[in-house]
Amino acid sequence: MALHTHPEFVAAFGEALSGGPVPAGLTARDPAEIGRRFSVYRNNVAVGLTGALATRFPVIRRVVGEAFFAPLALLYAKMERPCSPVLAEWGEGFAAFVEGFAPLAAYPYLGDVARIEFARGRAFHAADARAVDPARLAGADPERVRLRLHPSVTLLWLAHPAVSIWARNQPGGEDVPLAHGPEIALILRDAAFGVPVWRVGRGDGVMVRSVLAGDPLAVAAGKARKVDAGHEPQALLVSLMRAGAIVDAGA
Fold first, then answer.
1. pLDDT tens per residue across span 129-178
2. Can you give the residue ranges of the Putative DNA-binding domain (predicted)?
3. What DSSP state is assigned to residue 216?
């Protein structure tokens, strides 16, 4: 029997983990045990992957219930395997998967909630960066200065009130008012290694998007005022400074 090449074996092994036949080339002292032993391994992988998703998406698990989440996660794991041994990097496609899963059609907001949860995990594991000295901002010319934000900063323009829903599913969040319509989420890792989710208005959202694109501060503030005539950037900038989310300010 011809030996498989390494890519062929990896592909066959992956198919076997998803329920396909045991790949050729596996051995055991008793050949009759190969299938049973591989089933144990397959089950361990499935448990590990579904557990990783449960840890990454706790609000989704809470909303749909443990009995529903377990097979949901298993189905996703069969469709989209990790591409890296670092499981914290896996699961970006879970939001789109949830949105397209017919039995969850009555919960259209779950995809956006999953985006928040994945972004929080990514923010927590983002690279370190030292916060800028506030003195550098005090005399900066807003027409020229460009702010650089912490690598953890993520801005999500959501189609549903997912920030409110996420907040209501946090400990003590039962009384958080449920908003109506789309929301904008600003996610970052703060100086205390917390990962807050801020609900921001359109003006703040446009300003952060502009800053992330590299626009000078004055340009970013001007874009914010175009969508919110009364927008003032000071409160947002102070919040970002206190969180340690502004890491550079250069021309």
1. 999 998 888 878 989 999 999 999 999 999 999 999 999 999 999 889 88
2. 11-98
3. -
Give the start-end residues of each E strand in 203-250: 246-250
- pLDDT tens-digit readout, 49-95: 899 999 999 999 999 999 999 999 999 998 888 888 888 889 999 99
Task: Please report, as a single letter, which amino acid is at residue 9.
Answer: F
**What is the DSSP pairing of strand 197-200 with strand 246-250?**
unpaired
The structure tokens listed for 17 are 């983990």
* Residue 192 contacts residue 129 (beta carbons within 8 Å): no
CA distance 112 to 159: 7
Q: Per-residue pLDDT tens for 95-132?
A: 999 999 999 999 999 999 999 999 999 999 999 999 99
- Helix axis angle, 6-17 relative to 34-56, nearest 10°? 70
Q: Shortest CA distance to 186 belongs to which of 156, 222, 231? A: 156
In single-letter form, the type of residue at position 246 comes to I
Q: Where are the domains of the chain?
A: 1-107, 127-251
Give, in degrees to the nearest 5, the angle at Cα 143 between 138 and 149. Answer: 65
CA–CA dist 247, 244 (Å, integer): 7
Angstrom distances, CA of residue 128 to CA of 17, 125, 151, 248: 36, 9, 8, 13
Helix (H) or strand (E) holding 33: none
Per-residue DSSP letters for 114-141? HHHHHHHHHHHTSPP-PPPPHHHHHT--
- Where would I find the beta strands (DSSP E) of the chain? 146-149, 154-157, 184-187, 197-200, 246-250
Query: Which of 97, 110, 118, 101 has the alpha carbon at shortest distance from 62?
Result: 110
